[in-house]
Amino acid sequence: MSTPQVMRAVRITRHGGPEVLEPAEVAVPAPQAGEVLVRVSAAALNNTDLWTREGAYGRPGDPKAVSGWRGPIDFPRIQGADVAGHVAAVGPGVEGNLLGRRVVVDPAIYDAEGPDANPVGLMGSERDGGYAEYVTAPAARVHDVTDSPLTDDQLAALPTAYGTALGMIERGRLRTGETALVSGASGGVGIALVQIARARGARVLAISSGPKIDAVREAGAHAVVDRAGDVAEQIRAAAPDGIDVALDVVAGELVGEGLPLLREGGRWVIAGALGGYGVTFDVRRLYLHNAQVIGSAMHTPAHFGLLMDLARRADVRPVIAAAFPLDQAARAQEELSRRGHVGKIVLHPRAASAVDEPSGA
After folding, report:
1. Which partner from 4, 24, 102, 271 sits 20 to 30 angstroms from 168, CA to CA?
2. What is the pLDDT of residues 12-43, one digit of tens each?
């Protein structure tokens, strides 16, 4: 079947609120040398979609500057880092055996070749993403998951949230039998951290609140701390011997309160700042106990390969909170920003609005 010349997409032409998400009909992108064209089945939402749209990332030396993930955004930009779909066409130099295969796209743009390269850009930010019926991607970043038992929605939920989680776990050197603390445990990255850490054989202590606590426990947490109470005291009670690795997407005051709870040689891994980017802590708790604070932005190519192995075996099963049609992308982002859900929110670019209402999972 031939690829159409025009597709539906949602893009932003400036920074701002949900109102800057504009449905449009645009040309289907042509895969360039070394690229493939993916027909998008599902695209998952992430906090980075909100912050990129808002320009909330700041810049070195100016943390309040309006900026995208790694600097100015080249508008108009089609958002959406997380894509699952089928290869519809290949560009020059790409073998045709990928045609028709079900794939997940690694959304990272790396600073070098090789398995340990660092992400310095992101699909949906530094290049067009998956809020569209089609998207192009480098063939080297497309992973064949045709035989995975996971649904397209679950596959789309993996790249950013689970890739970020796996990157944190790898950089934090979490080992079987260690105790891991997971903050923001009901969010997309948080649930991923709980599931992957549990699969690694760690004892998982999670931080959540209210009605989400049961869902976090179901995801695999051995114990859940209620963030509405005295978090540090609850952690001490649940892990009297201390924490080996903190997997933190909240930061803020939690870092200063939590560092004294690390065991000797403990690692505090940060991949988000939901609680605030201004952090104060007693540095003596760092050097006197040989502790480490580690920044972790997404994953490396090697980490993503490990994630795709998990996907093919269905060793983790992402929780899908709701699904929206493409033309309700603004509504989907508003739902994400309210943080009343557990798991991932996805878009169905090829679904009609009247058919694909939000659904729990």
Report:
1. 102
2. 999 999 999 999 999 999 999 999 999 999 99
